[in-house]
């Protein structure tokens, strides 16, 4: 038997679950109303599913060499077979399996790099916008200094000094891309801190740190999500570019940029080695951009599209 004292929490839990389910269906309906949002969601769902279940989806071990089948063409070309759907590379490794495993690296680097950049930019934007004064001037001059240096040049210098690697690449891409977060968050905080709810919190003695976390952060989080989604596409392209130059992900770890670098030497004889990883990068970044555009339209009160 459930006592009357226990019935109240249970009923509240049921109501809470109903509200959460309603909210999920509401966002799903909004997504279906947007063609670009739906396409982006489908693309990213496929990419994420591929990365998570790569060991089960890949037909071969991505490092397994088939010496007798080196540089095999895709199955629809002369000399190709269904044994290797997209063909093999110069060492006889299955190209489809390597592309599937390469999705893991792109998503991991893209996700953790924007977490690093977002954490730095969000913290600086909140503090700078809330306190203002000399602290705001110091942070904004720091932002100006980062804007004065091209990101790719700064990244190349750091990687040349520290050496390439996945962890290093994540940190470098995060440190060099926090500026946009700081500027956008600061501008929103400058407006929000003059609102009545912030003044009311100050009047009853709420500490500054609590105001920033409980009152300002939830109000800027939507902009943060949009920025993070859109900048993830740029981060994935940057990772592929650096890996292509030999300063990003290093073998034997598989990355789409590294596959592009290998494939460029065989463009005349086996164009698929560079084309298929390039298509994977393009489709993934387009999916992220489409999803980011939909989020921007959703959170923009002036948008009438949805």
UniProtKB/TrEMBL annotation:
Membrane topology: Multi-pass membrane protein
N-terminal signal peptide: none
ABC transmembrane type-1 domain segment(s): 103-292
The protein's name: ABC transporter permease subunit
Transmembrane segments: 39-58, 105-131, 216-237, 271-292
Organism for this UniProt entry: Paenibacillus germinis
Compartments reported by the entry: Cell membrane
Protein family (similarity comment): Belongs to the binding-protein-dependent transport system permease family.
Keywords linked to the UniProt accession: Cell membrane, Membrane, Transmembrane, Transmembrane helix, Transport
SUPFAM superfamilies reported for this sequence: MetI-like
PANTHER family, sorted: D,D-DIPEPTIDE TRANSPORT SYSTEM PERMEASE PROTEIN DDPC-RELATED, OLIGOPEPTIDE TRANSPORT SYSTEM PERMEASE PROTEIN APPC
